[in-house]
Design brief:
The protein is an alpha+beta fold. It has three helices and seven strands; from the N terminus they run αββαβββββα. Strands 2-1-4-5-6-7-3 form a seven-stranded antiparallel sheet. The protein is elongated and about 75 Å long.
Length: 142
């Protein structure tokens, strides 16, 4: 009987420790902006709040093999997006991702604005990312 009490107390202490040290997963959303005109003018286009879609974009971004590059594109980015926390009290450094649609309209190119990193996604990842961010199919663009 005495051992059962110690076992319950031990499990309770371990549980408190585990739950106390677990990082709270704050919910995020993605704010997408679309370029209007030919200049660097952007307007709010869409907010992605569904956690599954936000996680898919995070996974795509996480798996990218970024290259250090100072890119000088011929036109401003077609879209920009940034991850933001739903809780305004969380102070986190926002990273803006700029997205260009390739001339063949089959791939997207990304630049991590603050870090000078560049990549071009393969056709499958491009299509998936573009559809989540815009709600349109990359293959439907003319």
């Amino acid at each position: 009987m005495k051992n059962v009490k110690y076992l319950i107390a031990f499990i309770g202490i371990i549980s408190i420790f585990i739950f106390g040290c677990t990082k709270v997963n704050e919910e995020q959303f993605i704010k997408v902006q679309k370029r209007i005109g030919v200049e660097y003018n952007y307007e709010d286009f869409k907010e992605i709040t569904e956690s599954e879609q936000v996680q898919k974009v995070k996974d795509i971004i996480k798996d990218i093999n970024w290259r250090n590059a100072q890119v000088d594109m011929v036109r401003p980015a077609d879209y920009r997006f940034v991850f933001q926390f739903k809780n305004p009290d969380i102070d986190a450094k926002a990273v803006t991702y700029e997205l260009w649609i390739s001339p063949n309209k089959d791939k997207v190119e990304l630049v991590k604005d603050t870090e000078g990193k560049y990549t071009q996604l393969d056709t499958d990842k491009s299509a998936e990312l573009f559809e989540i961010l815009t709600g349109e199919k990359l293959s439907d663009l003319k």
